[in-house]
Structures are given as C-alpha cells and as structure tokens.
C-alpha cells in the first residue's frame, strides 16, 4: 500500500506557477524576446537555468555566461518580489484537509520541488512543518524529468520509491515521477498531462481514497 505521497509545489499546492510565468514574461519583454503562456507551459517544472536556456533557444538568442547569470538573478528578483505578497491564504483550497487525512491514514508527506525558493514558499504558506521531508533542489544532480528529486525525497522519508506516489502539474514532473518508479497523479487535464496515471482538475478535488486506488489501478 501507499506509504508516502510526494508533492510538487509550484502549481500543485499554490499558484506560484503563475508568478514564475509573470517573472519570465517581464524578463523576456525587457530583452525583446518572444514569449507567451504557451512558451511558458514548456518551462513548468524545469529548473531556473534550464528555463532560461529554453527561452533563449526559442528567441534564437545567445548570451555570454556573465549575462546569463545576471538574467537568472534578475528573474529570481522579479519572482521573489511577487512572493512578498504571499501568506497562508495563498495555499490552494483543500491542501490542509488532504494533509490531515494523509496523516490520519499513516501516510507520510514529502515535497519534491525543483525550486530553490521552495523552503521560503512553504514557510510563507504556513505549511513548512507539515512535511516529513523536503528534498533540496540545490543538492540534486539532475533535474526533472530525471527522477533524482523524487528518489531523494522517498529516501529522506525512509521509504522505498515503489511505496510512494507523486503529484505534479507539469509534464517534466510526471516523467520524473515515472522514472522514479512511482505512480503519477496529474493536476490538470488528460490533454495537458497525457502520461499521468490519474487526473484531477485541482488538488482540492483529490481524496486519500483516490490516491490509494490510483496505486491499485496502476498496478493492475
Ligand atoms: C519549479 C517551477 C519552475 C521553476 C523551477 C525553479 O519547477 O515549476 O517554473 O523554474 O521550480 O524555481 P526557482 O525558484 O529555483 O527559480
Ligand atoms: Mg509544478
């Protein structure tokens, strides 16, 4: 049976995916690079430097290392400025109830975000103490779609990966969950996340029963 549920953060527990988008859009506008929501969808779950590489590729632009680093710092400053408005009110509906139900069922809760800001975000949301383990994106060798962060999280919770289920809103994240040998629950449509084993429209629509049956379905 499921012993641990590993959550992505941005776009799963809170709407920071939208803030990442606005920060990238502002940066792209400033440099005159073509960018929009569709382009941003391909950045979801992708780490900061990987995202900038995709934006530069899309614009057919190349910059030297110093400029690249400066742009990363600029994007992060734009993003962190938006975080200053965050409070527990920014937690998606149903997260606290789902966490309580998981805990009641004896299931551990982990966080596997590619964001180096994840620790600050969960503190701002008031849920930092809810996790049995928070994987450190800065200590991971390979980012999503590689399985590393989900494997590190399972390990940190003291659980074998096959006893864990991952929850993601991004295609790169669903791939990472599967590469880790876990069942993947997608927050979003079947069209947006074709590889997910189960789909729910929002985290608030997900019950512990559904999580338990997702594992049974995937196993059969
Ligand atoms: C998550 C988000 C991405 C973001 C990445 C790195 O995966 O979905 O949009 O680029 O984290 O976030 P960071 O806060 O480290 O720039
Ligand atoms: Mg996400």
Note down, in words, how this protein is organized.
The chain is of the alpha/beta class and 220 residues long. The chain is built from 9 helices and 6 strands, in the order E-H-H-H-H-H-E-H-E-H-E-H-E-E-H. It has a 6-stranded parallel beta sheet, sandwiched between helices. Strand 4, helix 8 and strand 5 (183-187) form a beta-alpha-beta unit. Helix 1 crosses helix 4. The longest helix has 19 residues, at 65-83. The model has no long low-confidence stretch (mean pLDDT 96). The structure holds 6-O-phosphono-alpha-D-glucopyranose and magnesium ion. The site of magnesium ion has 10 residues, from loops. Residues 8, 10-12, 17, 44-45, 169-170, 173 line the site of magnesium ion.
Short description:
The chain has helices at residues 16-31, 37-41, 48-59, 65-83, 95-104, 118-125, 148-156, 171-179, 208-219, and strands spanning 4-7, 108-111, 133-134, 164-168, 183-187, 198-200. The chain is of the alpha/beta class. It has a six-stranded parallel β-sheet with strand order 3-2-1-4-5-6, sandwiched between helices.
């Amino acid at each position: 049976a499921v012993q641990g549920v590993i959550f992505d953060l941005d776009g799963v527990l809170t709407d920071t995916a939208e803030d990442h988008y606005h920060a990238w859009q502002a940066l792209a506008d400033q440099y005159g690079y073509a960018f929009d929501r569709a382009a941003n969808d391909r950045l979801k779950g992708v780490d900061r430097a990987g995202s900038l590489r995709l934006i530069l590729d899309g614009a057919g632009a190349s910059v030297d290392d110093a400029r690249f680093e400066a742009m990363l710092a600029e994007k992060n400053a734009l993003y962190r400025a938006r975080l200053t408005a965050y409070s527990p009110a920014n937690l998606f509906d149903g997260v606290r109830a789902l966490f309580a139900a998981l805990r009641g069922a004896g299931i551990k809760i982990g966080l596997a975000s590619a964001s180096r800001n994840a620790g600050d975000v969960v503190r701002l949301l008031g849920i930092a103490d809810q996790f049995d383990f928070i994987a450190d994106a800065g200590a991971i060798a390979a980012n999503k779609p590689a399985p590393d962060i989900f494997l590190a999280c399972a390990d940190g919770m003291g659980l074998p990966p096959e006893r864990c289920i991952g929850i993601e809103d991004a295609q790169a994240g669903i791939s990472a969950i599967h590469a880790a040998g876990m069942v993947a629950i997608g927050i979003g449509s079947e069209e947006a996340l074709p590889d997910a084993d189960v789909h729910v429209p929002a985290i608030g629509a997900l019950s512990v029963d559904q999580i338990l049956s997702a594992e049974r379905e995937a196993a059969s």
